[in-house]
Amino acid sequence: VDRAEQAVRVLAARPEFDEVALYGKRVHVVAENIAALQPLIHDVLTDAGIHVDTMLVIPPSLEDVFIAKIREEMRKKESG
Length: 80
Prior knowledge:
The protein is an alpha+beta fold. The protein has one domain. It has three helices and two strands. The protein has helices at about 5-10, 35-45, 60-80, and strands spanning about 20-25, 25-30. Strands 1-2 form a two-stranded antiparallel sheet. A hairpin with a 2-residue loop joins strand 1 and strand 2. The mean pLDDT is about 90.
């Protein structure tokens, strides 16, 4: 995307995404069923005037899995 920092802010404001972060010049979005959310990501960014070059679905890294587990445990503690 062009304007990656703005893209992170726009996407991070959406409840559909668990995590949105900047990795170099790329925007990394984590969510359940991310492949199904690709059209939404494209539309949200386009509506914000941000050009999307390419989108790829990649397998979660070990760090992604670790963070997801930590967040899951935190949610469990907060809710009960």
